[in-house]
Design a protein that fits this description.
- The protein is of the alpha+beta class and 99 residues long.
- It has one helix and four strands, in the order βββαβ.
- It has one helix at 46-63, and strands at residues 10-18, 21-28, 33-41, 67-73.
- The protein has a four-stranded mixed β-sheet, with helices on one face.
- It is elongated, with a radius of gyration of 15 Å.
């Protein structure tokens, strides 16, 4: 995963990564506020995705910034119409809170 930004606009405060997630805390220079960007690459296995959702929720609670962006590949669908090639719908447990 990679997360890039304009260094004239943002200054990195901290960052860390774990399996499937990259978290970058930045200071938005123009608006004088701290922001959190969460870059996600979720696993294909449903139970592992659910663990990742819990981790993202913990990050949101830990940093509690007004400025938060969650981006990336969630490897999950919101509606059956998005599914191609699989007849069985996996449980979309808790993905709705990120949409």
């Amino acid at each position: 995963m990679i997360t890039i930004w304009n260094t004239d606009k943002f200054q990195r405060v901290s960052s860390w990564d774990n399996k499937g997630i990259l978290v970058v805390n930045k200071f938005w220079i123009e608006d004088d506020k701290e922001c959190t960007i969460i870059n996600v690459y979720a696993p294909n296995i449903a139970c592992q995705r659910w663990e990742l959702w819990d981790m993202i929720q913990s990050v949101l609670e830990q940093y509690n910034n007004d400025c938060v962006g969650i981006i990336g590949d969630f490897n999950s669908i919101r509606e059956d119409s998005e599914r191609i090639g699989r007849a069985i719908r996996e449980d979309a447990r808790d993905i709705r809170k990120f949409n």
